[in-house]
Amino acid sequence: MKIGIDAIAMDTPDFYVDLVKLAQVRGDDPDKYTIGIGQDEQAVPPSSQDIVTMGANAATKLLTPAIRASLGMVLVGTESGVDASKSSALFIHDLLALPEWVRAVELKEACYGGTAALMMARDYIAAHPDKTVLVIAADIARYGLATAGEVTQGAGAVAMLIKAEPHIMTIEDDSVYRSESIDDFWRPVYQDTAIAQGKYSTEQYLAFFQAIWSRYQTQRHHTASDFAAMTFHLPYTKMGKKALKLVLPDTDEATGERLQRRFEASTRYCRRVGNIYTGSLYLGLLSLLDNDTSLKAGDRIGLFSYGSGAVAEFFSGILQPDFAAQLHAANHAKMLADRQELTVPEYEAVFSDKVPYDPEDYRSDPTYYHGQFVLTGVIGQERQYQQR
After folding, report:
1. pTM strictly above 0.90
2. May I ask the CATH architecture of the domain 170-323?
3. Which H, E and C letters describe 227-292, residue by residue?
4. Which residue among the candidates 93, 106, 109, 233 is catalytic per the annotation?
5. Quick one: fold of 3-167+328-387?
6. Is 291 part of any known ligand binding site?
7. pLDDT at 196 (0 to 100)
8. 241: annotated binding-site residue?
9. Which letter does DSSP use for residue 339 in this model?
10. Which of 33, 55, 60, 284 could cross-link 138 (Cys pair, CB 3.0–4.6 Å)?
């Protein structure tokens, strides 16, 4: 039985900041951001947008009456949870008015959470082939204004339907994964900005990939030439490019050219949205599918997932005969094109207007409401969501 991605959609805030202009204000060479890091624009989420609203906005594009009736689980991978106890999946379940006879769970392991949800969904479908699982990978990356990590911030969500006999891509049973407790990146529960050991984290990302890729080739008997494309977790696009370079020395010229060309297609959305943690790998996959029309049914796509702390996994998927008909590239292009650019002072004001880590009531600014679902505030320590 084939199991995999039957439908996929994204959501990102209506606002962004141009990183060339940000570099100029910060006194940096713009090439440091656009070439050295590999980012052009960065999504800016107002306080009325969080992982719940973005996840619901992405998921609502996929839901039909038949899908609702077949749902068995709602899984949210995130490291931007809105509550230390209650699952963000339950808030999303409520906003989408989903059936009560489902499991609704949130999974956390840094940027790996979306892949953990995908693999849990795959296993569930293997045991319940008549069911569908809604997987959402949603996050907001925050490091602070004028910090070393500022250029790798971002916000967004990717929603996927996982089913038997999928229309877009199978998830093959060929995973190789690795776990090790390291301190390369973390976020204490009392703050909304992450702490990153940047150089060390990059080294670990690459070391995990190299070890897993070597083991994958030995165990699964696939080489780079078997892949039409490889996609990577993209905290920033240059990171994935460094990983791909570890593969290229052992490939022939045609394979190397193909992988590099399609890697660039996989980075287009990330270059404009920024880092969305658990969703970054799947934003890259969606970018590849939307932007490379030379892909064909039967092509094998490699996916590398990395979550600091750290867990990593490499697996593959096979494109299905009618995959292109299931995509909505024009809608995604319009979503990005229609966003409003913020000046750097406006971006700084929006970034600083955040839901506080204290019991005081808070109301978000309606000026920045976006999408079908918004967070209107936190009243009496209860989050207030609204469908517009």
Report:
1. yes
2. 3-Layer(aba) Sandwich (3.40)
3. CCEEEECCCCHHHHHHHHHHHHHHCCHHHHHHHHHHHHHHCHHHHHHECCHHHHHHHHHHHHHHHC
4. 233
5. Peroxisomal Thiolase; Chain A, domain 1 (3.40.47)
6. no
7. 86
8. no
9. P
10. 55
